[in-house]
Amino acid sequence: MSNVAIAFNAVSKKFRKGQMFDSLRDLVPALAKLAFIGQCERSLGKNEFWVLKDICFEVARGESLGIIGHNGAGKSTMLKHLNGIMKPTKGTIEVNGKLSALIEVGAGFHPDLTGRENIFLNGTILGMSRAEIRRKFDEIVAFSDLEEFIDTPVKRYSSGMYARLGFSVAVHLDPDILVVDEVLSVGDYVFQNKGLEKMRSIRDGGATVLFVSHNVKAVSSLCSRALLLDHGLLVMDGPTQEVINCYYEKNAVESANDPKKEIVITGVYITREHAPQVSFLEGSTVLLEIELLGKKQCDNLSVSLGLADDNQYRVFDTSSQRLTGKSFSINKDEKKKFVFELQLNLGPGSYHYVAYVYCYETQKTYDMSSVKTLFIESERDARGAANLFPKLLEGG
To answer: Residue 272 maps to which CATH number?
Structure first.
């Protein structure tokens, strides 16, 4: 048996931008042209564009793969091809195993049927037998936390309730491959964590997991490997944290080149004893320097910084305004420099910091730096994000 669960082999898909025909006289020739001339696989016709372009990757059995990228990058289109909803313009897709996909909230639900009836309907669509659904029914309902509303028509459900019920059915299919596309973003915090734990248990049970999300913290905690898509192209395939850093840096570069930008962060770096460094001993005192350039007059500003661990958990954040109680202004072509002193009371490992210019009054972010990484080394075996500098005073 092949160890490959999923393979995309030079998969491309092109869409045609919407066309309007005012008469049957215009519509018939257009349809005839598509039927007899066909669409050229290697080039774009008028009003066509590539939504996926030469996508190649493999996913091993039991692997967890995250897919990230901006809106419109092609993530959901890729998963719809994987699920057989769409067919590629060119290339082939290989799927080895029983696949369960939750690509759209409430997909396969009938609004006039109750939650109970929709479990049977949706489970059947996903390939479960009625006997299997009956056997797992109580477990599905309990997981969704919808016992009270299970006999209510789902048209009366909120979007979060839809997501909970649909997700519950999908993850109880015992799939070889589980595909989830951002649906947990509409659930409440408790259910999001519950859903992630369920996906981890499915992964740990040997299933393959594909997870599309804008929540990079969730992707980082669930997936060991990730893909970065941008305008239909596969930009990067690698370890999750490296792909996330590339995603952040790419967004920062695009933001810096935006001609409409009012303020630009021109430099962010950590120094110790007047020299930039990336590796530090636990408890070190360092300076974090942030340089700005004003493109126009802006008022009521604050410079903020945040620090996250490898799982994208926010370990620490602060801002100039929270520390001083005052905002600042910047003029066109004016340069400003902010220096924060930090004591790195962190456990050993890698951490990722970012700076941004923010206005608390309007909740507007003017600019955000690329993500940078620092490394903490320890002389003792202390683990976790915070370092409490332990000493054993008695015992042993």
So the answer is: 2.70.50.60
